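Pasting as-is:
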Amino acid sequence: MKIKFRTEVYPTDIEIVRKLTAGTGFFNGEEIAIAAELPSEKLEKGNASGYEFIFLEVDGVTMAYSCYGRIPLTKSSYDLYWIVTDTAYRNKGFGKELLRKTEQDIMIRGGTALYAETSSRRQYIPTRMFYEHNGYILKARFEDYYDTEDDLVMYVKRFDLL
């Protein structure tokens, strides 16, 4: 099995992002559409889009991706907008490797913190555990943010304190 990371965004990535995001079963149509807009915006605007991507390929096929960017009006804080792994490749360490690669890129760019938002819904327990197992600290919880009984849960990992 040959694993490769790439940061260049191709037009075909728009559909790849849509397919990977939809395949999780976690996201609604609006969320999937937004995820697919981000590589399109990166292609159209380049670095001015504010979005960075890392794609994880296994034997030449994209199986996971992360999308992140510096938070506007901050000096060195970054948002993790998306990290998605094909369901067939979950729990095999690919997400962890992709997250590490994302964190390394952010540190190279001078980033000092990475923020990750997720939902409090039961189906997101594995997502929250993923962040916690990778050194992220729960920093905030906003009740009923997405919907009634669906809180926004915010994690952060500080690189300047490592």
